[in-house]
Every structure is written in C-alpha cells, then in structure tokens.
Specification:
Blueprint: H1 2-23, E1 30-34, E2 43-44, E3 58-64, H2 77-80, E4 85-86, E5 94-95, E6 109-110, H3 114-117, H4 122-135, E7 174-178, E8 194-197, H5 199-214
Antiparallel strand pairs: 1-2, 1-3, 4-5, 4-6, 7-8
C-alpha cells in the first residue's frame, strides 16, 4: 500500500514539474531586419528583400522585446526606425532632433507607437460637440424664405423711357429768358422753365381762354 502511494505521489510531483517548466519557458527572441541603405528606412520582423532597392534585409544586433513581437511589422516604420521625429506627410523622413522635412518643409513631429496612435478616448469622440457648445454656433436648417436686403452700390439715375413723352408744338417766336441752366436739371411740377415772346402763341392762348369761358361744355 505504501509503495502504491509513493508511486502516485511521484507521478503527481513529475506532472507539477512539467507544468511549471512549460510556464517558465523563456520566450523565443525575435530580431528586427532592416535595409542596409539607411535612407530607405525599411524595417521588417522577418528576412526578405527591400521593396525599394531590392537588397537583402540584414538582422539587427539587438533582439526585440517579447511584448513587441506582435506589434512590429513592416508597416510600422515610424515606430521601429529608432528615430525620435518624422515628417507627417513623408514618414520615410526620420531624424533624431527637431527639424524640417527636406521634401515639403513641414516641421518634424515626434514618433508615436502604433498602440498610441490607435487609442481613441472619450474626449476624442465628444470633442467636436464640446467645441460647438463652447462656440455657441446656432444650428440653421435650410428653408425657402424671402429676405429684405439693402445694398449700397454705385451707379447713376436716368429717366424711365416708359413714362417719358414728347409734345411737339411749332410756332414762331423767341425765348426771352431761360430758367434751366444745364441738361437733366431737376425741376418740379409747375416750375417756370422759360419766357417766350410769340404773337402766334399769344393769339392761340387767348382763343383757348375765350372758349373755356364761353363754351365750357365743348370738348372739341
């Protein structure tokens, strides 16, 4: 009975050792591969060829941390290049210090890890709404309506040809005095324009006055 118990205890002990060994097994180290031409700024987590110049990627001397194995890839150039600053428009432009991009002239910005760039906080989501409330911008809905607008503009005024007329009266005479000094002078209704001396016009005026006085009902 004691032999059976000791054998079972030994088997249990061996199983526990195997489980502990599996958990404490050191993780496999991963290395980063890069193009020998530093201006290409190509990085990858596996061997291969540079897509720009075609040269074989070389392995870096230092291994990558275990927690970054799954996050580093060939697309994470700005994070894995080791440079502190990069151009936002041209990620291949890397630098250790702040400067300007030689292509577009923009100021180099600090590099961010892929994990940081993918973080979306609640503040980011509600920021547009907060800015709208702070700015007190009223919401306007599109609709059809008539607005009375007053516009100040430069121009000139002329006569309405639809309301202008010409009366021709031919008679002999002369202008004694003219009260209008220049063309398009503003005049009022009943204003004297000129003094005319004409015996024919005087005779016609006397005839009209005589008819109006003695025959007011005659419309001819």
């Amino acid at each position: 009975m004691k032999k059976i118990l000791s054998a079972n205890a030994f088997q249990i002990f061996m199983i526990i050792l195997l489980l502990v060994a599996c958990k404490t097994k050191s993780p496999q180290q991963a290395y980063l591969y890069t193009c020998p031409m530093t201006e290409d700024s190509i990085f990858s987590d596996s061997p291969g060829s540079c897509p720009k110049c075609g040269m074989d990627l070389v392995k870096l001397d230092h291994p990558l941390p275990h927690e970054s194995h799954e996050t580093i890839s060939a697309n994470d150039t700005m994070y894995t290049s080791g440079k502190a600053y990069a151009c936002p428009m041209h990620p291949q432009i890397q630098a250790d210090t702040v400067g300007h991009c030689p292509i577009c002239g923009m100021i180099l910005e600090p590099n961010k890890s892929p994990a940081e760039s993918k973080k979306v906080s609640l503040q980011t989501l509600i920021q547009p709404s907060n800015q709208q409330v702070i700015a007190s911008i009223p919401m306007v809905h599109m609709m059809d309506r008539i607005e009375n607008l007053e516009l100040a503009s430069l121009g000139f005024i002329t006569y309405d040809p639809r309301r202008a007329g010409v009366i021709a009266s031919n008679y002999a005479g002369r202008i004694e005095k003219l009260y209008i000094k220049y063309r398009y002078q503003k005049i009022e209704k009943g204003q004297k324009i000129m003094d005319i001396y004409s015996p024919e016009l005087l005779t016609a005026q006397q005839n009209i006055l005589f008819l109006l006085k003695n025959d007011p009902g005659n419309e001819d």
